[in-house]
């Protein structure tokens, strides 16, 4: 997961039709006795023209949670960060009403692949298959502070990372140990206090970021990146040995450009690649040829 600036909402979320749905929701939940009922007319405003397209553009065709490309193979789910219709707490069925007032809020909408968003059986390292995927889960530090009306969500201490509201790279650490069996795995990052990030831990669990298929795909990208890093170090040494031959310097610079491509926002698993490149930066650029 990488930080992404969502920018302004698409026009369809600010139309009279969208405003009418919000007004209908407020009217429904203002009626005594409706506080814990599902909204039976459904939610449609978040499906307006341009929402999916703008999310795809902002996130470069990648899942907001796992950074896997979905654009070439599947339409993204328009995922509600805070669930709109009901909340799952400790394996219960979704309990209404959910965060209905955020159903068409731009900052609450994210593009997600089906494996991160929908509950289904997944394989994980060292364990039996289990059902995983966010669905209607939204863990917070204290259920006593769960928002029930608009505005109360500001008092919650949420445990899930949001790619626009947080800096996910501060909470997630990718294992990249030179060909070990754990390459491509993800774990909570250590905070300045020395403790593992609780937001990182909860996000890895709820978004199923440790599923085996995802680890294997990240591992493949890591191997490719490590190959480029190794080649760049070789070209750096060659350029140092031949300071008067410009072609060696040009080859090194071209290799560095290839590495930088892995860290670009549009690259698959860019957050992981940035972490790995940062670890190599001193070795790669110290005493590098001009």
Low-pLDDT runs of 5+ residues are: none
The coarse overall form would be: elongated
Indicate the structural class: mainly alpha
Distance between the termini: 34 Å
Total helical segments: 7
Kindly estimate the percentage of residues that lie in beta strands according to DSSP: 5-15%
Q: Please list the strands of the largest sheet in the order they lie side by side.
A: 1-2
The tally of domains stands at 2
Number of separate strands: 6
Radius of gyration, CA atoms, in whole angstroms:
22 Å
Q: Could you tell me the mean pLDDT?
A: 91
Helicity, as a percent range: 25-40%
Give the helices and strands as they follow along the chain.
Answer: HHEEHEEEEHHHH
Largest sheet: 2 strands, antiparallel
Task: Provide a brief overview of the structure.
The protein is mainly alpha-helical and 290 residues long. It has helices spanning 16-29, 51-58, 114-117, 198-206, 212-241, 246-263, 270-285; strands at residues 77-80, 109-112, 120-122, 130-132, 172-174, 186-188. A two-stranded antiparallel ribbon has the order 1-2. It has a two-stranded antiparallel sheet with strand order 3-4. Strands 5-6 form a two-stranded antiparallel ribbon.
List keywords for this structure.
290 residues; mainly alpha; 2 domains; two-stranded antiparallel sheet; 7 helices; 6 strands
């Amino acid at each position: 997961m990488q930080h992404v600036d969502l920018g302004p909402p698409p026009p369809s979320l600010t139309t009279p039709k969208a405003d009418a749905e919000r007004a209908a929701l407020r009217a429904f939940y203002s009626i005594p006795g409706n506080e814990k009922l599902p909204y039976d007319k459904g939610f449609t405003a978040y499906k307006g023209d341009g929402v999916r397209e703008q999310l795809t553009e902002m996130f470069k065709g990648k899942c907001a949670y796992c950074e896997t490309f979905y654009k070439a193979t599947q339409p993204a789910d328009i995922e509600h960060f805070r669930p709109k219709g009901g909340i799952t707490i400790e394996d219960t069925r979704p309990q209404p009403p959910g965060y209905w007032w955020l159903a068409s809020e731009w900052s609450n909408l994210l593009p997600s692949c089906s494996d991160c968003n929908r509950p289904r059986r997944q394989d994980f390292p060292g364990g039996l298959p289990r059902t995983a995927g966010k669905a209607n889960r939204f863990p917070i530090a204290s259920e006593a502070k769960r928002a029930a009306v608009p505005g109360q969500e500001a008092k919650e201490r949420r445990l899930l990372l949001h790619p626009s509201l947080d800096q996910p790279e501060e909470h997630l650490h990718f294992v990249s140990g030179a060909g070990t069996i754990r390459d491509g795995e993800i774990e909570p990052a250590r905070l300045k206090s020395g403790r593992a990030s609780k937001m990182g831990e909860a996000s890895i669990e709820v978004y199923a970021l440790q599923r085996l298929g995802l680890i294997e795909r990240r591992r493949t990208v890591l191997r490719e990146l490590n190959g480029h890093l190794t080649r760049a170090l070789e070209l750096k040494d060659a350029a140092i040995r031949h300071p008067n031959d410009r072609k060696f310097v040009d080859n090194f610079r071209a290799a560095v450009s290839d590495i930088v491509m892995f860290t670009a926002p549009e690259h698959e698993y860019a957050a992981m690649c940035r972490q790995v490149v940062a670890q190599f930066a001193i070795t790669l650029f110290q005493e590098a040829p001009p």
